[in-house]
Write a structure and sequence with these properties.
The complex is a heterodimer of chains A (541) and B (271). Chain A is of the alpha/beta class. Chain A is built from 23 helices and 20 strands. Chain B has eleven helices and no strands. Chain B is globular. Classes of the chains: A alpha/beta (541), B mainly alpha (271). At the A-B interface, α13 and α15 of A face α8 and α9 of B.
Chain lengths: 541, 271
């Protein structure tokens, strides 16, 4: 039973159609998956992880095709199988859990009805039986109130609960294999734990096999028995989890593993002048409930303040208050010693120029109809009246500064750039205004690990050269550790702890800070088990 | 030019159709065998050497009227649609970007205009102001712009929430830049598609107005009007009204082939 080979992929090639020809996107991949085993597929975006995950179900995205090779699922060849045959195995033998549960559930049907759809459709059980099973699985996945939770609509569940409901749903037809495609990427660290625990529950206790796709090595180390490292559709290295983490063979794997240590500790914190001071600020969206309460913080020249918290903690709202998009209802914001009008409309151009912002999603932060030249050139023209030859020169300088080759990029439209390049252009746009202070709102969370590291070290270099201050909003504590001088922790619209990095990161800290710090996965296969054991024992005692 | 070489066959066909129509319209007096008003034969005569496409309900040469009609019809439809798009898009964008009471004010006024059936609204204005070409254009443009406004506002609202618009606001950009440079290029695909449709609806609307005697005044020819005038012939098994109808269809297809091509280019899709 234990050695039963559920999934066997041999010499798989998949091609995608772009630039008017078929290009190989998955290059000679072979893998085996046995019952009770979890295989981690890891790599950056474009590595072909999801394509392989979908191919295991005999499915390719539009514009792609299975070129050659063999995919055997429980002895049945999927390569060249009819649509009918494929439909009968999907959900029944192999199921898929997508990255965003929020986008994968139909918002207008109750959770449990969507759960039952699969088994009823496949004729495995009737609705009543499916409902009973659902309650059992909800219970196993630690969802609160398993009897009733299924009657809720998707928007009535939190992100972590929804993702677990999605995992439960993939179990509805009792498949042998589950493909998890980045199931925790969109979640906060504290909710990520819940989902990881339920993935472990299913694979270990219920004896299912799983493919776990992610770009985060620390996460996959917690759940996978074996790991395959992929790059550009090809295999870089494969190995048993502990071995791979301890002794990676390839340089690429070592790069992925390398712990981020970017910032040296800066001393004499209080000697530089204050750039931004936020004092007793309150803000509200509806005029009744405060989303921000009693916010006090200070940013000094050439320093980085990291603003940490889960989604919904008010981090981004605070950024909106500082930029003036959402005027504060009470309190005072001063910038370079001068009080700043709460409302954007009443701020003068010079203050707008000196306070810039960089966004989480470089895709939406750049107008898709503009070229790099327009994007970077506009602030030059707008704030300094620089046009023509002089502007051209400045744009090229800025591009060089953000480590993009001017001749190659200056005339490109923004959609023709990769995620990391886009984020660099956003940085150049902010720099063009010659700011004193930049708000970075989750600037690396949409990027792959290595790309994100490039962006972080660029930001650090710029800070050193130009003495810019950052307010760095993030939910990723690894980033915080890497670049912050000062840490501010927010929960439910309030600041619960703030101080120098060393101070905040060394115990004793606030109870919530403790939970937050403990939730960051570390590159240790036993970390999740230890943490869960610890939590269980504290819960019992 | 480079674009034209790479254009798909369908777009080239569309381009040829529209160009053909425009040339005919411009050189109408040179091409047409008779004048717009000259009576050349009996009522609803069959095709002959004398009148290539037969004659209309007053015995005028259909071919000549079709050629002169191209002038009135295309010019009228083009000017009207442009006007309605200029006003509708501008107002729609302002409403979406400014929001608040401005959005409310514009939208409620538009709602009021839309509450009247279009034909009755047009009748009201035309019977009070008289039916000159100028007033005809303005009336239809106002009516059309309500639809364009709604579309432009909805599309702009989707774009307005994107971060790059916020970046522009934070930079301190004015309304004009945001509308013209940030929103318009991204709204183009939807607007161009709508343009193709609206352009053709204008012929039909003028035709219904002509039927009520408030469209283009006789003896000026317009295609929609010609279909109406000769509709009675159908009962006698004479297919003369189908000829101007075919002309409308022909131009409509041509315009929409080009619109499709624009959409294709604007969406950045290849193949």
């Amino acid at each position: 039973m234990k050695s039963e080979n559920l999934l066997q992929i041999r010499n798989l090639f998949i091609e995608g159609f772009y630039e008017n020809q078929w290009n190989t996107i998955v290059d000679d991949i072979s893998l085996d998956l046995k019952r009770g085993e979890v295989l981690g597929l890891i790599g950056e975006s474009g590595a072909g992880k999801s394509t392989i995950g979908l191919a295991a179900m005999g499915y390719t995205r539009q514009g792609c095709r299975l070129a050659s090779g063999s995919i055997k699922l429980d002895g049945m060849e999927l390569f060249g199988a009819s649509e009918e045959q494929l439909r009968s195995i999907r959900g029944d033998k192999i199921a898929y859990v997508a990255q965003s549960a929020a986008a994968s559930f139909n918002p207008s049907h109750r959770i449990i009805h969507q759960y039952a759809e699969g088994p009823v459709q496949h004729g495995i059980m009737d609705y009543e039986q499916a409902r009973k099973n659902a309650v059992k699985i909800y219970d196993r996945l630690f969802l609160p109130d398993p009897e009733k939770i299924g009657l809720r609509y998707p928007h009535e569940l939190s992100g972590g609960q929804l993702q677990r409901a999605m995992v439960a749903m993939s179990m509805s037809c009792e498949p042998d294999i589950i493909v998890f495609d980045e199931p925790t990427t969109a979640l906060d660290v504290t909710t990520q734990i819940e989902v990881l625990a339920s993935v472990k529950e299913i694979t270990e206790k219920m004896n299912k096999a799983a493919l776990y796709i992610t770009h985060d090595l620390a996460v996959v180390a917690q759940v996978a028995h074996r790991i395959m490292v992929l790059r550009n559709g090809g295999l870089v290295e494969e190995g048993e989890t502990r071995r791979l983490i301890k002794k990676p063979k390839e340089k690429y794997t070592r790069d992925l593993l390398s712990v981020r240590t970017l910032s040296e500790d800066k001393n004499d914190e209080d000697k530089t002048d204050v750039i931004l001071k936020v004092k007793d600020v309150y803000a509200t969206y509806n005029g009744v409930d405060n989303v921000l309460e009693d916010i006090n913080l200070t940013v000094r020249r050439g320093r980085t303040v990291a603003l940490v918290g889960e989604s919904g903690s008010g981090k981004s709202t605070l950024a909106r208050v500082i930029t003036g998009m959402l005027p504060a209802t009470r309190g005072e914001i001063s910038f370079l010693g001068q009080p700043l009008s709460p409302d954007l409309k009443h701020r003068d151009k010079n203050n707008l120029r000196r306070l810039q912002m960089i966004y989480q999603m470089p895709d939406t932060a750049l107008n898709p109809k503009q070229t790099v030249r327009t994007v970077i050139g506009r602030p030059l023209d707008f704030y300094f009246g620089i046009r023509g030859k002089e502007a051209e020169k400045r744009i090229r300088d800025l591009l060089t500064r953000i480590e993009l080759e001017p001749a190659k990029y200056i005339d490109r439209l923004t959609p023709e750039l990769s995620g990391g390049e886009k984020q660099r252009i956003c940085i150049a746009r902010a720099l063009a205004a010659e700011p004193d202070f930049i708000i970075c709102d989750e600037v690396t969370s949409a990027l792959d690990q290595l790309v994100a590291e490039g962006i972080l070290s660029l930001l650090q270099d710029l800070q050193r050269e130009m003495n810019i201050s950052y307010l760095f909003i993030t939910h990723d504590l690894a980033t915080v550790k890497a670049i912050a001088d000062k840490i501010v922790i927010m929960l439910e619209g309030r600041i619960i702890e703030q101080g120098e990095k060393k101070e905040v990161l060394t115990p004793p800290h606030h109870e919530y800070t403790d939970k937050l710090l403990a939730s960051v996965p570390v590159m240790d296969p036993d970390w999740l088990d230890n943490l869960l054991d610890k939590r269980a024992s504290t819960f019992l005692s | 030019m480079n674009l034209l070489i790479k254009s798909p066959l369908s777009a080239r066909i569309g381009l040829c159709i529209v160009l053909f129509n425009i040339i005919v319209a411009i050189f109408a007096p040179l091409i047409a065998p008779y004048s717009e008003t000259e009576v050349v034969g009996d009522v609803w005569e069959q095709m002959s050497g004398n009148s290539l496409l037969g004659t209309d309900h007053l015995g005028r040469d259909l071919m000549s009227r079709l050629i002169f009609g191209a002038r009135n019809t295309i010019a009228l439809a083009f000017i009207t649609t442009m006007l309605s798009f200029l006003s509708g898009t501008t107002l729609g964008f302002v409403a979406a970007v400014k929001g608040g009471w401005i959005d409310n004010l514009f939208s409620r006024i538009i709602d009021i205009i839309m509450a009247f059936p279009t034909l009755i609204f047009a009748l009201m204005i035309l019977s009070v102001m008289g039916s000159s070409v100028m007033i005809l254009i303005v009336t239809i443009a106002i009516l059309d712009s309500t639809r364009v406004y709604r579309l432009a506002r909805a599309v702009a609202m989707d774009i307005e929430v994107m971060d790059f618009v916020e970046v522009a606001r934070l930079r301190g950009e004015g309304l004009w830049w945001i509308m013209r440079r940030e929103i318009l290029p991204n709204a183009m695909p939807s607007l161009v598609a709508e343009f193709g449709l609206r352009f053709c609806f204008v012929f039909l609307f003028i035709a219904s107005l002509s039927f009520l005697g408030l469209g283009l005044q006789p003896p000026l020819a317009d295609w929609g009007g010609m279909v109406r005038e000769n509709a009675g012939a159908i009962t006698f098994g004479i297919f003369i009204p189908l000829i101007p109808a075919a002309a409308i269809a022909f131009l409509t297809v041509g315009v929409n082939l080009i619109v499709d091509w624009f959409l294709h280019l604007a969406s950045g899709m290849h193949n």
